[in-house]
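Checklist before submission:
- one chain only
- standard amino acids only
- sequence pasted in full

Submission:
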Amino acid sequence: MKRSVPPRLPDGPGYLMYEEAARYDRVQIIVFVLIIAATLVPAVVLLFFDIAGAATMFGVTVLDILIFHLAFPRRYQIYNTKLKIVLGWPLSWEIRLTTIKEARPAAGSTTWVYGGVRLATSSATAIEIVRRKGMGVIISPSNRETFLEQLNAAVKLAQRRI
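Returned file contents:
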């Protein structure tokens, strides 16, 4: 299959080139549910014995849900100047494309143990982003091959502009 050269992009910031949703593994979802259940079940049981303890456990459950909502990625956006990792509203993290050394498929074990920033939610589609300065990042878009192709093309275009 012949690969086509990506079109020339405008030089201004904010040009969205590609967007991919985050993929969540069944194991990851089960871990989320178990963590929530570990605080919700005791809260329900405590309703019959200690109202203050039950209220505290319900508060912890709500806090856990809020942390999961805010901290886990929703989608990944490739712009002409940056990679944007969209977390729960209103949070996002932007990585300038010029700081990316390379993006490559990652081993499934890196979704659980990694020496950098671990934002991967699926071991099947994990991608490691190696940066020139700063910590590396592990992410997991739904379609790894297409995302890697688009990201590497955007990184090359961004580095040519320098």
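Reviewer check: The radius of gyration is 20 Å.
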